[in-house]
Design goal:
Number of helices: 3
Radius of gyration: 31 Å
Distance between the termini: 89 Å
Number of strands: 2
Helix content: over 70%
Shape: elongated
Largest sheet: 2 strands, antiparallel
Strand content: under 5%
Strand order of the largest sheet: 1-2
Length: 97
């Protein structure tokens, strides 16, 4: 009976050890999956900072990139041309109903 008890005890201890290994493996997989999101976020943030730095540099020095000055870019961003066209289209559709 002592050997049977010892064998059951060994099996139990091995099960507990295996469960910790499985939990550690699952935790590592979750961390690796989360790293992909943060890496993508860091890349997006880096691109945004670089674009802002390029825009600010062009604004302060008066240079052009691809034929556009910083002032022209600001006008394009502030222009409501596309919004106005969409608003007019919606208004026309509502009036025809």
């Amino acid at each position: 009976m002592d050997m049977d008890y010892a064998n059951r005890r060994r099996a139990y201890v091995q099960e507990v050890r295996d469960s910790f290994r499985e939990e550690n493996r699952l935790a590592e997989q979750r961390e690796q999956a989360g790293d992909g999101f943060f890496t993508f976020f860091k890349l997006r943030l880096l691109v945004a900072v670089m674009l802002f730095a390029a825009f600010f540099g062009c604004l302060s020095t008066g240079t052009e990139i691809a034929g556009y000055s910083a002032e022209e870019v600001m006008e394009l961003v502030c222009d409501n041309h596309y919004y106005t066209n969409l608003k007019n289209y919606v208004m026309i559709q509502e009036q025809s109903e």
